[in-house]
Request: fold
Amino acid sequence: MTGPHETNGQGFPKHQTEYQERQAEEPEVVILDGNEGSAGPEGYSDLADMANLKIPWIMRVIFLVLVGVAGFWLFFSGVCWLLCGTANAASAFKVEDLGRLTRRFWRGVKRSAACTLGFAVSVFSPPLGLSIIMLYFMLHEEGDSAMAQMLRSNVNRYSA
Reply:
């Protein structure tokens, strides 16, 4: 049994080097679903399996329907934005309610465009399409969440 102050001759505590030696002999391996030995030398076979994932046809149909619904909403909010924007410009931007309504419809256009794009990508790759939608709503919502502030600060730091 080693004491807390014993060293191995190189200045490291003896218990620490014993742990490192044990880790070198027995690497940590996570086995999922009993697929022992399926990982290649890099251990990325599960990622390759995810890339070859078969998506059920019903899921593709659901995403196609959602593309249609989001596309209709994009068209509707775009028309409303154009009408309100035209009326706002005709009033020389003096009516504050029209300006507020125009901004609200523009926000709807942006949201529905993000959803339409995300659902269209989701027909082919659901994780990527839904990630596009989540990223948009995390970064562009009015409620400044901690995640949105962090991501914006990183973008601002690297763009300057």
